Amino acid sequence: MKPKIHFGEQLSPRGEQVRSALTSGPGIAWVTVFLLVPLLSIIVISFMSRGTYGDVQPHFTLENFKRFLGYGAFGFDPLYPKIILRSLLMALGTVTLCMMVALPLTFFIAGLPQRWKQVALMLVIIPFWTNMLIRTYAWQIIFSGTGWLARAAAALGWIAPGDALYPSALAVFVVLTCDFLPVLALPLYASVEKIDWSIAEAASDLGADGRRVFWHALLPQIKPGLMAGAILVFIPATGQFAIPDLMGGAKTVLLGNAIQQQFGFSRDWPFGSAISCLAMLIVMLGLWVFARTAGEEGRKTLI
Amino acid sequence: MKRPSIVLWLNAVVLYTFLYAPIVVVIAYSFNSAKRGGPWRGFTTEWYATLFNSSEKLSAVTNTLILAVASTAISTVLGTLLGYGLSRFSFPGKKLFSWLMYIPVVVPDIVAAVAMLMFCSFVRNWTGLLELGLTTMIIAHVTFQIPLIAIIVRSRLAGMDPAIEEAAHDLGADAWQKFRYVTLPLMMPGVLAGSALAFTMSIDDFVISFFTAGPGATTLPILIYSSVKRGITPDINALATLIVLASIIGTITVTMLQRQGRDERKL
Predict the structure, then answer these.
(1) Where are the alpha helices (DSSP H) in chain B?
(2) What is the domain-level CATH number for residue B137?
(3) B142 closest CA partner among A27, A20, A40
(4) Domain A86-253 class, CATH top level
(5) What is the sign of the dihedral through the CA atoms of B186, B88, A38 and B136?
């Protein structure tokens, strides 16, 4: 092969490989050893069995996958299918609610005068950079039995007087939405700010009503940001374990909690690996939907 | 763009309240003299005093900072080199490795965390190395930071005019001089942005640290989690308040600097 001109200098193929090894080499080696290999071994271990003392035995088995499909040692038990379904509903519900409230919020910010726009945007960025664990446990105080929200709920007869509003599925849902709202709002805002309003004006001049203007003239323009925000919420919400753990307790075990249990006191790594594989599979499905709907522009927004 | 209508205003007010309610509550309760959360019992700064006298909390602060500084230092060097290498040279399998960079974005934290936990434990069984603790946490954090910094540096380099580097070569710079005196200064804003982001990520991280920490190595997020699990202690509110204030000041400073940078470029 003849040497090519590379930024003004001649570089032989061999020279280019040496430079690659010197620059990209260490980083690629690090990520391969400490991330790619462990992730691939998760797939291998999910087909192995658990030894008596919680060790991993290299006996091939499909038991782990059967188990979370509901077919355990004691016949059919819907425990794990329920967890999968609950996680999916919780993640999709969070994405949907975040979208529904972030859309008007981003249009609000984009409509403010320049000076106030900066302030309003900053007010979304600050919670984004504030530790999620802190924002999560604060809800324990807000939802506590002596707080006015719980007392109002008790007065309405929804809960017993003195009871807290957590642990409950609703508490998990509220906190997931609060914690992930900025994650969706920020990429969405980037799209909303770039909207070409002349398209909307043209649509309404041609007789489209408000709803049709939104669906056909505005939504296609903000779809990349909306989908990027949605996938950025969907992925962590699927694997979330701290929020359901603190706000839902044993009542709302999600995939993340199930994984943590197997790597914590249950010490069943092969089964934990199988659940992790399932979580990755769900995320892959989400990404596939994202790739199908968001297109090139959406991919650029995400990365 | 039209001015926001009353409906949009109402929605915004509700959402901002929703976003800030937890932050305000934590700050307020850090001054509440009641011992176990509960209703307001009067103002006190006692919890801040206990905080500064607690060796457990101070060692968590030290661990968090050591972890963040060490991991950011390693990942800044490796990530910058990787971003530079990926944007400048091609090699077999480059496309595959470029995709590798997005693993931390697309794999849920907890899956990557347990994968690393198992990896460390297997390596320990075979070789006796990688005992869980601060070292394994640093390794895990670096693993997440390298791709992040590499992506940012690469996109900075992609927007750069190749003529500048060509000119450096034509003027007699060798490969190292070209990198050291031309390319590196030009990609510096990307390197700084990347490492600032990596540093924040390390300080903020709970899940990865939680699984790769040994019994002795506690960081601030782990400390907060375990205290909350045991039942909220008021000095955790004081600690959280200080962290929240640091994030608010940090965010505002970075945003101001960014805006200043933009304004300067406009001139």
Answers:
(1) 6-29, 46-53, 55-88, 94-100, 103-106, 109-127, 134-158, 162-170, 175-178, 184-204, 207-212, 220-230, 234-266
(2) 1.10.3720.10
(3) A27
(4) mainly alpha
(5) negative
Contact B81 A27 (CB under 8 A): yes
- Can you tell me the ipTM of this complex? 0.89
pLDDT in tens, A172-228: 999 999 999 999 999 999 999 888 888 888 988 898 888 888 888 888 889 888 999
CB contact under 8 A, B232 and A137: yes
Radius of gyration of chain B (CA): 23
Q: Does A30 touch chain B (CB under 8 A)?
A: yes
Position A150 pLDDT exceeds 90? no
Q: How many CB atoms lie under 10 A from the CB of residue B80?
A: 25
Instruction: Give yes or no for a cis peptide into A167 (omega within 30° of 0).
Output: yes
Q: Identify the residue among A130, A181, A243 best suited for mutation to test binding to B, counting B beta carbons within 10 A and taking the highest.
A: A130
Q: Which residues span the domain enclosing B114?
A: 52-266
Q: Which residues of B touch A238 (CB under 8 A)?
A: 108
Q: Which of B89, B117, B224 sits opposite A133 (nearest CB)?
A: B224
To the nearest whole Å, the CA of B44 is away from the closest chain A CA by 18
**What amino acid is encoded at B176 in this protein?**
W
In a domain, B171, yes or no: yes
The DSSP 8-state label assigned to residue A214 in this structure reads I
